[in-house]
């Protein structure tokens, strides 16, 4: 039966349904991770995120602290940049960087025979301001980020690693889970820029709502 719901109440009702469905499935999510998991499900209508999202210790808390401190965000896609709440980020003192379409990045990637995503991480590592990294598309970005972390060239305040696909996707996420940085990772093949943006928003909304 069609529910007659005011437009302003649609999101609230959606989260009520998610909560009811999780209870029906017997899924118990740690309180500190609950809002992130529910927003990923809300974005995808995929309840497997209740099992597949992996959090390092206090990852959400550290993410909240990072945003409160005015950190910037680095993404591997313009879609994440479009989907995240940049108004809230700006109010907190941060801005978002996506270097994937920069001319210098494209030129260097072509000359080296590597992906633009990889080179964009190298460019991001030169930023002087502390950053949260959100990767939703390119495993090569996540792999290169792991290498830069291990080399001590960058120290993300949080890595959101949710690239989607088949080639090196699972392996790239496993590398981040081995890195000495806070992370939120989807441990399988699923993910995407929409999921990365949802996780960023879920963390920021806990500061402003």
Q: What do these coordinates show?
A:
There is one protein chain. By secondary structure, this protein is of the alpha/beta class. The protein has one domain (51-208): Rossmann fold (3-Layer(aba) Sandwich). 53% of the residues lie in helices and 11% in strands. The protein is built from eleven helices and six strands. The chain has helices spanning 10-25, 34-44, 49-52, 59-68, 78-83, 86-91, 103-112, 116-124, 139-150, 169-178, 193-208, and strands at 53-55, 72-75, 96-97, 131-135, 158-161, 183-186. It is globular, with a radius of gyration of 17 Å. It starts with 9 loop residues before the first helix and ends with a helix.
Q: Give me the count of strands.
A: 6
CATH superfamily: Cobalamin biosynthesis CobH/CbiC, precorrin-8X methylmutase
Gyration radius, to the nearest Å?
Answer: 17 Å
Pattern of helices and strands: HHHEHEHHEHHEHEHEH
Tell me, what is the CATH class? Alpha Beta
Amino- and carboxy-terminal Cα gap: 32 Å
Number of helices: 11
- The count of domains is 1
- At the fold tier of CATH, the topology name is Rossmann fold
- Large-scale geometry: globular
Q: Calculate the mean pLDDT score and round it.
A: 95
Strand order of the largest sheet: 1-6-5-4-2-3
State the CATH architecture: 3-Layer(aba) Sandwich
Share of helix, binned: 40-55%
The computed structural class is alpha/beta
Stretches where pLDDT falls below 50 for ≥5 residues? Answer: none
- How much beta, percentage-wise? 5-15%
Largest sheet: 6 strands, mixed
